[in-house]
Structure formats: structure tokens, C-alpha cells
Amino acid sequence: MRENTVRTIWNKGGAVINGWCGIPSSVAAENMAQAQWDSLTVDLQHGLVDYQAAVAMMQAISTTPTIPLARVPWLEPGIIMKLLDAGAYGIICPMINSRAECESFVGACRYAPAGYRSFGPVRAGWYGGPDYYAHANDTVLAIAMIETRQAVERLDEILTVPGLDGLYVGPNDLAITLGCAPSGTPTDKTVLDAIRRIAEAGKRHGIPAGIHCGSTQMAHEMIAIGYQFVTLLADNAFLAAAAKSAVSEMRTGKAAPKASGSY
Amino acid sequence: MRENTVRTIWNKGGAVINGWCGIPSSVAAENMAQAQWDSLTVDLQHGLVDYQAAVAMMQAISTTPTIPLARVPWLEPGIIMKLLDAGAYGIICPMINSRAECESFVGACRYAPAGYRSFGPVRAGWYGGPDYYAHANDTVLAIAMIETRQAVERLDEILTVPGLDGLYVGPNDLAITLGCAPSGTPTDKTVLDAIRRIAEAGKRHGIPAGIHCGSTQMAHEMIAIGYQFVTLLADNAFLAAAAKSAVSEMRTGKAAPKASGSY
Amino acid sequence: MRENTVRTIWNKGGAVINGWCGIPSSVAAENMAQAQWDSLTVDLQHGLVDYQAAVAMMQAISTTPTIPLARVPWLEPGIIMKLLDAGAYGIICPMINSRAECESFVGACRYAPAGYRSFGPVRAGWYGGPDYYAHANDTVLAIAMIETRQAVERLDEILTVPGLDGLYVGPNDLAITLGCAPSGTPTDKTVLDAIRRIAEAGKRHGIPAGIHCGSTQMAHEMIAIGYQFVTLLADNAFLAAAAKSAVSEMRTGKAAPKASGSY
Amino acid sequence: MRENTVRTIWNKGGAVINGWCGIPSSVAAENMAQAQWDSLTVDLQHGLVDYQAAVAMMQAISTTPTIPLARVPWLEPGIIMKLLDAGAYGIICPMINSRAECESFVGACRYAPAGYRSFGPVRAGWYGGPDYYAHANDTVLAIAMIETRQAVERLDEILTVPGLDGLYVGPNDLAITLGCAPSGTPTDKTVLDAIRRIAEAGKRHGIPAGIHCGSTQMAHEMIAIGYQFVTLLADNAFLAAAAKSAVSEMRTGKAAPKASGSY
Amino acid sequence: MRENTVRTIWNKGGAVINGWCGIPSSVAAENMAQAQWDSLTVDLQHGLVDYQAAVAMMQAISTTPTIPLARVPWLEPGIIMKLLDAGAYGIICPMINSRAECESFVGACRYAPAGYRSFGPVRAGWYGGPDYYAHANDTVLAIAMIETRQAVERLDEILTVPGLDGLYVGPNDLAITLGCAPSGTPTDKTVLDAIRRIAEAGKRHGIPAGIHCGSTQMAHEMIAIGYQFVTLLADNAFLAAAAKSAVSEMRTGKAAPKASGSY
Amino acid sequence: MRENTVRTIWNKGGAVINGWCGIPSSVAAENMAQAQWDSLTVDLQHGLVDYQAAVAMMQAISTTPTIPLARVPWLEPGIIMKLLDAGAYGIICPMINSRAECESFVGACRYAPAGYRSFGPVRAGWYGGPDYYAHANDTVLAIAMIETRQAVERLDEILTVPGLDGLYVGPNDLAITLGCAPSGTPTDKTVLDAIRRIAEAGKRHGIPAGIHCGSTQMAHEMIAIGYQFVTLLADNAFLAAAAKSAVSEMRTGKAAPKASGSY
């Protein structure tokens, strides 16, 4: 089976540089994939992407060595299994707030007896190889989003769910549920403390932690405090920033000031 | 009929800031349209876009005041008229190399007796208004690409075709046909001379000239020598540059050097 | 943030004229949007529409001042949040039959602490404006369908759920669960009584009530008994009626008799 | 091979009731097809439809006995042959203004030696039957649009092209090229005279003539003067009229007056 | 209402020959439908198909007498009802492991009082006929997948759910949950015993049983032991086998050996 | 630039095993690409495929080492250049019947001064590499279809067009224009003679010849007489044959006899 190089990087203690695809287009996805990210996540939650677009996007990503991951809209077994069958090498699931939710999520990613994933890996077999079934449970990643006050309070019960492979922090939702304003590059102490606490819990339980970052500066800082999977914004944010900067440079004669280190 | 503000800017002697859409997605197009370009061109030639995608992209652009234009793949009446019916407020046509080609092109954009455009402006009427037919010939733009050695040699015969509204320079094809290497920010004297000559011919005949630019710096220079319509790269180039820069900043600790002023 | 004019009309005590889109096409949606409805609902339940089509349809509607709403297939948080992120200014959710279901529904439409909506309003921000987050909870509408005998019996417990913005009656399902035949223009006393009772409960709790109508005559009657949001059939019903009438006029020499005031 | 019932009706001297599909959706097409038209034309010229949408629309039409036809964007052999391969049982080609154009058009619809159509009727074979090749030349219809002053002047040279099966009048373009305002229900004597002349020429040469009609009244009148193929508006016009009428009835309390007998 | 010939075959004691569509294309679906299957199942679980593709696929199937069925991704009411509205004449639901799940599934397929299906059969009415509502509960099929150890242990409680129309065995998942390797043509005694036991339970309760088969040989054997609905592989498996065999014959000079009687 | 292994095989005197994609689906294309063809041709002529589908199909093919080619609908520069920009490593152009047509075709595939291809290889650069422009003229293949009596008579004038890389025979059209019935596995002496004559002309001028084959047996025979590029049927033919055979085996108890060695 094709190696999941996200695991390989983690096994060496490294940090994965992850890109994010929210534009529902296989052309935009291949465009992104040319930049040699370690992994690219097709976002079916806040991205404007549904399953059929995601299939074509993962095909486009598969023209390169970048590993395709997917974020699902919600903890729903149907879409989790469909994306795995379509060749996602990992699923990021939003709003895992309890041990039961985490078990339900991990189970959807694993064939029995480890879980209850149904068998039928059509494109997964094309991408992963004919021995997909034999190695899938050990290859595809189940990554739970820790992004609420409740989840932070229950870190130890969530992180001990067998088979959980990674954590992922959504700073905006974390901020909101902690009573702060959402921000892609958080500065509230409450939020930063929670972010640190999550990384520590990950270390404690041997579960690599990831986080969405609003700038490369933040991403470097997150790696410094123990994160091993950093996402840099998203395709639509790149496009918006570049377009606005170009227009601003033409209208005002100088580039738009970059917002707090973001792209 | 809705005003074509590209004409308005030209009538005031100003320069139009034009964006370029080659990703076949209405989401990417609306993303671009948020940046307040004067106009956005949906590129059906080198962009990865066909007619059906272009319709949805022009709908997305029409959620903003930005004027939707389209570049056709080739001088073929079918697609020119289809894009006008779909609401394009101007057509950029590649490789106009003779007076006959220019007449054929302009005729496809005009109702009789000025041309031979067929009547049926379904979405054009939604976008332009119920009086579309009465004003279309004076509103939609016919913009011929001058991008070969042959076209430069025939500027005066091409520019005197009645009804031609604008010129547009593709620096890459111009360079190639002049025996130089293609470049989005040309530096060959031969190419720069031709670019200057085209602007001068435009001025002489009262036809505003436009050009594709590889950087804002080049765009400012082009405006300085008389161009009144400057395109800044393209959505896919923005996305590629931002993604590569992000990965580079993460891997090397510093941003990728920007190539000669381009985005 | 862009004003939700459905709320504005309600605040003035008026009735919203709502259209209904079940054809999965951004062209059909823009066609409908040209008719100056107060709002248009993209129907992902009984319409033949899924998420990706709905995004393009809402883009098309956003070329006009008509407010885009969406009906979801079922009470499932994933699709509710995806449609809000895509710019729906309100969600109509079918089959809300208990207080718990209503709480779950309203919560999916609200950021914490009012609910559990996840943050990432990409297109919602383009449509609503950069201050979307600050005002979203007070702007987007959570409209629960009251369309079963059970729901009618529990009106008071359902209508007191904090944050519920509106009710919506599906006369067909209401009729079926009350033991009557489904009808778009109900005449059974049982059904009409329930329809009246729902409007009264809405008034009692200050929650505007809406209803699907099979004719303009019915819509006027519903407004007369207190409904403040009336839907006139659907795009596919308009198309079917017009086509059948045209064929009938050609074959029989006279127009098809209109079925009980419907279009 | 499946019978082309358009020919059957013509052979009996009858008139074909034709519908028109410009909304790029297989759902809208099936919706239309439920009305039992004799034939439905997928419009790739002024409809917002391209090839891939047209394939799905013709599949949808093929769920009923209605015969699928297609109008191409322009006299271009590629798209004519692609639509025939996709199962169109006739092609309507715009702007046939000379004998040479008519020969080129008819040739694209016929296998050698009658023409130069390339062999590969994949879906055509599914729709027409395994003996498609043997009967295609005698079954599929080549219908030339006569819609300019020039074409009217050359009727006899155009109508004697061997293999031409039908004529089709676009009243709007005819009016424009005759110096009148475009109208779906023409009243200018110049236009009406030309319309009459075309029908007479058709009769003279044994070629059935068809025409686009803005109302059933006009369609009945056209049949009365010899037309044997009448189109009633289009799906998007039906939808627009019904939606506007519904909104008007709600806002003003009475239906919108119908424009000169149109739907 | 159009007859559901799957029921007709069952009523005569016969076995249904079912095909399987996992390629998200209406062209592939019509291609399959030309082979005169009794029924074709659009697979939204392991097929690479979502709702919008499924609609077009069912339209394509509806050009023939073959009955369209659909397998849903999971027991989720939204997608079950959407597919029924789109004209599926039966739903196959994966992983029904308890009486409660079976009741929830059957209820989603039935209008009240038999179930809780919501009313709005737009395309279902086009396909089934104007009297769809009156006969739908007795026509559309609710087929539960029995494919886990747990389900086999609970056969009698599951099969006595009122309104259940059929069973369907997924041999791969059945094998996995029984501790065996997945196989499309199972040979493990444990799996074969369970397969036999399921057919016997079906007979006992008067519920026809179906099964996915990896070869025609297996299908004949399954019919021999009482199965009345056999699926032969899937479109993508047919395509893969034919393509591999062709390449092998060209490279090695002889056909690839067929794996255990499969295609 | 990525190597065009079709050229490599030809340079070694070998024969290319080519597959054919006419189903408009990136999933079907990736399914085909798993079979390790030397090349796969996306067919935009008789396949039910247009440009936008072709882009996704070529992306899918690019997940494997198989070389993506495309057949265009007709000799039209717009679509030829669009497909090259989208990453096709060769274009097969139908109905090249004269030297002028061949020059026009080859020119559309080459940058100046060798031709008149316009510059903008967006996806071509992703697939081919950043040095695409420098090597494109020597890498991408211009393959002219020789498939009419006229073309056979003009072989020497056509084959001496500078830059022509290959020939391709369509046996069906060749047969028709020679007065024979179309056949995928021709047996008419007239057709076989022409097929032999084309291969000989190719040898004489150093231009590899290819041909569409209805069976592996025919393909082996064609290689034996000098063809260096053989296509085995098409995806839709594979699917049809497998489906029909499966149904036949179930209904009659034995496999369908294979038609004259075809799949």
C-alpha cells in the first residue's frame, strides 16, 4: 500500500506542512498541489465543496506526491466512509466534544473489529494499491478536531480513545466557545493557553496535534510549542489576499499592508 | 441598459484595472470579484474554462459592480455570440492578424446592420436590462488581440475597422512571433518596441489599448506609456505564488523571492 | 452586514412573497430571481438540488436584491451549516416535531454561546459583508417546519425555543399526518383548522408563520388569517403548468383549465 | 431504427408542436418533456446550454416519446456531429444564408456519399437502435434557419440543396436584417411578408417550414398559412412569465396583463 | 402508477438480475441500462456517486424499462427521501443491525401513517405517474442490508419489522465482521453458512433476499439456495476487467485468466 | 519536461497500446488508467465528452504513467489549443483530407515559427514541467486521421507536411467513404488494402501509423503489418460487452458469443 507520508513525518518527530482547499474545482486543487505541500486537505465543512467535487479534487492532488486528506462537514458516518473510499488518506472531523463522539468517529474510519467502516474501497484501492484492505486501518488517519471549551475540558478522555491518530485545532471555534472573538491568528491569552494545553495533552498521550494557522509566523510558533501539523490558511484566502493586494497596488501605488503576518 | 463602466473609464481617459479568471469555478470567480476590480475577464482560451463554467462565473461576478468580460478560444462566431448572450459585456478575441479577421470578429459582436450577431440575449437581458437590444451595439466591447508580428505590421488596416473598441496585447505570443522568449514581464527591446508601437497606433486611431501584465510595476509602466487597460496576471498565478511562498516560508524560514516584481 | 429584508418586512408587520427553486440550475435560479421576489428558497429537500448546485443558485440569486434562503433535506447539522456558510440568509428545516429537535435546529444556526454553529463563513462573508460574524446570529433566520400532527400538538413547547425566528407549514405533510389526502391548496376542515391554529400560535409567541401555497388566491387568504411568509408553488410547477397549457392550447384550441386557482 | 415522428407528422401533412429548452438542466428538460410535446429542441445557440448539458437533457427527453432535436450555435461541423452522435434526431442550424452554407450544413448531417458525417453514433445507437447507421441519413433531420434578408432573397438556391429536410424561421433575426425591431410576435408588414414568402417557398420545394412563435395565437396563425413546425417560446420564457405573474398577483392583487398573447 | 417489475418478478417466485452503477455519469448509466437488466442500482455508498449525479443516472436508466434502485451511504433520512423523490423505485440501506434501525429505515420510505416520509415526489411523479402518492407505499422497495455478525444474530427481530420488502447481503462486510477476509466470491464456510442462514430467514418471513455476487457462477448458486435478487459486480469492475484483459492480451499474447468465474 | 513515452516506444520501433475514453467522467478515466495502457485518448469527437470533462479526465489519467492524448471533434484551432494547454501530450485530428488541412492542423499544435499555437500552457506546465515551452514542439504529438478515400489518394502530399508526427486510421469512416459498410474489424478487401497502403506510406515517410481496432486479434494483425499504435475499442464498448455478457449468462446459462473477436 502507498505510504502515508504524514505518518512518516510524524514518526520522525517532524511537522507536516498542510495546505487547505475550499474552492470546489479540480483545477484549483491541482494548482495548489503543485506547491509541494506535505498534505492537502479538501475541506467539505467550511470550504464550498461537496463530495463529487472532492473526488475530482483528490484525483487532482493524486497527480503529485502530496497526501490527500479531507475534512468532513460533521460527524456523520456516510460522508466519512465515502471520502475514505474515494482515496482520502485521512479524515479531519469537526467538533469532537466527548469520548463517545470520538469513538464513533474513529470507528467510522476502521474496518471491523477495530471499527465499523463498510468495505468497498474503489478509488482508495486505485490510489493506495491492491493491498489497501490489509493496511488501511494502519494507514488512514483519524484526526479529531478539538475546538471547543468542552473538548478541552475532556482532553484526557477523548485522547485515550484507541485508534485516534491526531488532533486538530480550529482556533476560531475554540476562541468563540471560550468567549473570545474568532481569529485566525489568536492573541487572547485564554485561547493561547488552550492551544498550548492541547499540544501538551497530545504529547502526553502520544497523539500528534495540528492547528489551522493564519500566517507562516504563527505556524512556526505553533511548531515551536509542539504542533506537528500546521495548515497555512486556505486557497480562497490566498486568492483573496493576492487579488486585493494587486488592486490596491494599482489604485494607491503601493501594496496593501499585510494583516498581522497573514498571506 | 446597465452602464459599461469600462467605457466610462476610457471616456474619462483613465485606465481599467482588469483581473483574469482561468479557474473553472464560480466560487473562485466570486472570490476574485470581491477585490473590486474594474473588470474581470473569464478566459476561455488559456484558462481551463469552457462555456458552461463561464456562465456560472459571470453570474458570480455579477453579484458585484465589476464588469464581466470574456476571452474566447479563437475567432469562432458560435462561442463569441454565446458569451455575449450569457452577459459578457465585452469579448477579447485572440490572434487578430488581418483586417478581414477583425471585421469578422467585430461583426460577430454587433446586431445588423453593423454586424451579423444573432438575436437572443437571454442572460444578457437579465444582466443588462430589458432595453439590452437597443443599446447593445454601443455597450458591449469588441477587443482584438494584437499579439503577432503580422498584426503589428498591419496595425493601421486592423485599427480602422469600424466598430472596433479596443486592442489587447498578449506579450508572450508577441515575443514568440518576434523571435524572443515568451515572458509575462518582457525585457527584450524588440518586444518593448512593439508594445510601444501598438499603444501609439491605438492613440492615433482613438482605440484604447490593453495589455496583460506580469506585475503591478509593469502595469504602472504600461499605463505610463499610454495603455488604458491592464490585466494583473491571473487567479491561478495568484494561487500558485501564494502557495509556493507559504511552503517556502515554512521549509526555509523565509519567503520566496518574488520573480521580477510579479505576484 | 447586509440587511436581511425578510426580517425588515416582518418587523413592519408585512408578508414576505417567497419563491421556490427546485430545478438544480443557476440559470433557472437567476431566471426566477428576475421576478423580484422578496426571498427565494433553494429547496434541498424535495427540490432536485444538492449542495453544490445550491451554491451556484445562491450566487445567481445574489445578483439581485432578493434574499436567498434554503430548505435542508433533514435536521442534520452538516448541511445546515454548509448552507449558511454558502450565504443562505435563513434555513427552513423540515419535520420539527419536538422541543429537542427545535433546539438542535436553532443551535446549528447560531454561533456560541447561543448555539453550536462552527465558524468559517467564506461565501457568507462575501454576501453579508466583513462584519458577518458580529451580526450573523441576529440576521440569519432559523425557520422550523410545523407539518405534522405531533408538531401541532406541541406548538407551545416548540415555539418557546429561544432564537427560533419563524414557522413554516408544509400543507401536504400536515394533511397526510392528519389523515387527509395531500393537497397544495387544502380544503379539508381538519387541515384548515390546523393551519389556522399554527398561525395563532405564531402570533401568541411572536413568531412569524409561513406556508407553502398552491395558488395566489390561497396565498392571499393565508395572509388574511395572519401568515407573514407565503410561497407560491415552485419553479418546476410553473414550468410544468406553462408547458402543459401551451401544448393544450395548440392541440385543443383553448387553454387548459387552471386547477383550483393554481398556476 | 426508432421512428422519427416529426417526419411522420409531416408526411401526413400535419404540424409539429415543438418546445424549446434553454435552461442547462436535465431536470428542467424532463420537466418540459412531461408536457407531451411532439418534439423538444435543446438550444445550444441562444439557450444557456453547452454540449455536456445537452447530452443529459436529451437523455431526460428520451424518457418520453417526445423527439429530441438540437439547435447548434453556428454552422460548425464539430458540434453538429457531436449532437447527432448524442442522439439528436434533428439539427436546426442558424444563419444559413447561401447554397454553399446549406450544402456544408446538410453534408455534416449525412454519412458518405450523401455527406461527410463521421461515424461513431454511440448514444445515437442507444436511442435509435442497433440499425442506426443503415437508416440515419433518412431519419435525422437537417433543418436550416432562414432568418436574414439575404437568405430570403436566395430561397430557391438554398431550398434545392439535396437532402435538406426543413426550414426554420427566427422572426427576431429576420426582422433585424429587414430593418425592423426584433419581436417574437411580429407585426411589421415587411416581416410578415417575408414569413409568408418562406412558407410558400417551402411548399414549392416540398420542404416543411417551421417558425419560432411568441404565443399560441401566432402559432395557430402560422399553421394556417402553411407552417408545419411551430415552437412555443422557451422554458426560460415560461418560467419568467409565471414567476412575474405570481409576484404581480401578490403585490397588486391581480394578474399581470399578458403581453400580446404570449405566455 | 408505473409497475415495479422487481415486485412482479418476486411475486412469481423469480430472481431479479440486478446491475450496479458506481461511476458518476449518466452516460455510463445509460450504457449499462442498454443491457436489459431487470433493475440497476445507483450506488451512493461505495460507488463514487452523490445525489446530483444519481439524479442524472436515474434519468438515464429511465430511458429503458430497467427499474432504478439506489443504495444510500448510510441510514440517514435526508438522502433516503431525496432519492425516492428523484424516482428511485427502491432503497437499499447498508448496515441494518437492529430492529430499531430497520424501523427507522422502513419508516423513511413510507408516507404516514406507515412511516414518516415527507411529501414532495417531483421526479418520482414524472417517472411513476400522477397517482404516485396513492401507490408509493406499496410500490417502492425498502431493502435492508444484512451484512454483519450482529445482524445475522438478530435476523428474526429485524425481519419482522412491518413493511420491510427485502434483504440484501454484502458478502465483504459480512466476511469481515465474521472474522474472515473480504471476498466478492466467498469460500469461507463461516461466511457461506451465514449467507445460507440469511436466505432461510428470508424464506421463513416471506422477505426476498438478495446478494452481491462476484461472478455469474456465484449468482447461479445463490439463486439455487433461494436468493431472488442477484447483483453482478459493478460497472467499474466490468470496465477494469475488460481493460486489464485487453492490455494483457496485447502485451502477453493471451487473455488474462479470469479470477474464479468473475468478469 | 516529462518524457512523452509514446515517442520513446516509437523511437525503439515498438507499438503503443492505446486505450480510448468516451465516458465523460474522471472516475471512468482513472478506472481505465489503472490498466497500464501506454496511452489513453480522451475522445471529444465520438465520445460523449466535452472540454471541461476532458480536463478532469486528463487529470485522472495523470495520476498514472499513462500518457494522455485527446481526439478533437474537428479541425478547429480553438479546441486543439485548449486541449494542449490542458495537458494533452498529443492531438488526434479527424478527417484530414488534404495537405492544407494537415498544415493547418500541425500548425495549431506548434508554437511559432513552426506553427501558430498561442502561448499559455497552464495545466500543460503542471503536467509537463516548468520547461514546457522549450520542449513542447518536440514533445506533443500531432496525429492526423487518414480515414477517407480522398485522404488515401493524397497520402504523399499529406505525409510530407513538416512536423506531422503520426497517422491514425478510423476504419469505419474509411470503409464508408470506400463504399463499404462500417466495421470495427474490417474484412472487405478494399478496406484492408487501404489500411495496408496507409501503413506503407507511413513507413515510406517515417511517420508511425495507428489504427482503431475492434479486437486484440485485429490489433496483433495490425502490428504485424506495420502499425505502431493500436487502440482497443473504447471504455463504453468494454462496459456494454461485459454487461450484456453478464445478463446473458444469467438469463441463458451461458456467456454471449463474442462478436468476431471483439471484446
CATH top level label of chain A? Alpha Beta
CATH superfamily of chain A: Phosphoenolpyruvate-binding domains
Q: What is the alpha-carbon Rg of chain A in Å? A: 18 Å
Give the uncertain stretches of chain A in residue-range form. 259-263
Q: What quaternary form is this?
A: homohexamer
- What pair of chains forms the biggest interface? E-F, 39 and 39 residues
Might you state the CATH topology name of chain A? TIM Barrel
Give the mean pLDDT of chain A: 96
Outline:
The structure is a homohexamer of 263-residue chains. Chain A has 13 helices and 8 strands.
Descriptive report:
Chain A is α/β, with parallel strands linked by helices. Chain A has a single domain, classed as Phosphoenolpyruvate-binding domains (TIM Barrel, Alpha-Beta Barrel), CATH 3.20.20.60. Chain A is 46% helix and 14% strand. Chain A has an eight-stranded parallel β-barrel with strand order 1-2-3-4-5-6-7-8, surrounded by eight helices. The termini of chain A are far apart. The C terminus of chain A is likely disordered. Chains in contact: A-B, A-C, A-E, A-F, B-C, B-D, B-F, C-D, C-E, D-E, D-F, E-F. Chains E and F meet through helix 2, helix 12 and helix 13 of E and helix 2, helix 12 and helix 13 of F.
Question: Topology of this structure?
Answer:
The structure is a homohexamer of 263-residue chains.
Chain A: H1 5-11, E1 16-21, H2 26-33, E2 39-43, H3 51-61, E3 67-71, H4 77-85, E4 90-93, H5 99-108, H6 122-128, H7 132-139, E5 141-145, H8 149-153, H9 155-159, E6 166-169, H10 171-177, H11 189-205, E7 209-213, H12 216-224, E8 229-232, H13 235-252
Parallel strand pairs in A: 1-2, 1-8, 2-3, 3-4, 4-5, 5-6, 6-7, 7-8
Helix pairs in contact in A: 2-3
